[in-house]
Amino acid sequence: MYKFFDREKLKYCYQCGRCSSGCDINRLDISFQPHRLLHLISMGAIDKVLKSDTIWKCTTCFTCSERCPQGIKVTEILWTARAMAVKSNYIPELLITQKDILLRTGRLIPMDNKKREKSGLTAIQEEPSVVDRIFEIAEKEK
Questions:
Q1: By CB neighbour count within 10 A (0-12 exposed, 13-18 middle, 19+ buried), where does 32 fall?
Q2: pLDDT by residue (tens digit) across 85-122?
Q3: Is 36 left (phi over 0), alpha (psi -120 to 50) or beta?
Q4: Which residues have CB under 8 Å from 90's CB, separation 6+?
Q5: Is residue 73 part of a domain?
Q6: Does 34 reside within a domain?
């Protein structure tokens, strides 16, 4: 079913943990351990990986891939896992909410105008086409 992972290449992972020990997210959240995700994938427990929120914690900084002594492209594997999770409709609710906010406002976090007003700042009105405007500006800059 999941032909996207080169499980032959994953056999070279000897679970040294360098990918996890160099990960900034791992320092903040010990449950995020890329080497364990690779192990689960190599053992065929792909559904377990796709259904977990863990793959969504990666910031894609590539540190794990750069530290891997076997040259395993850990970040790309996690991207593939995310794509497969989306295709299988395993998306955390928070990400769905963030996507909706991003498309509506151009931000990942909703604006809290009450906090702005308490600080003496003016309220910011949401514009329904902020993302469209961003892409229009980018096109003009080419």
A1: buried
A2: 988 999 888 888 888 887 777 777 777 889 889 999 98
A3: alpha
A4: 50, 51
A5: yes
A6: yes
pLDDT in tens, 1-49: 445 566 677 888 999 999 999 999 999 999 999 999 999 998 889 999 9
Tokens 């991207």 -> residue? 79
CB 108 within 8 A of CB 102: yes
Q: Which residues contact residue 36 at a Cβ distance below 8 angstroms, ignoring those fewer than 6 apart?
A: 20
Distance CA 66, CA 119 (A): 43
- Same structural domain for residues 16 and 72? yes
Same domain (yes/no): 72, 106: no
Residue 19 domain boundaries: 7-87
Provide the 3-class DSSP secondary structure of residue 74: helix
What domain count does the chain have? 2
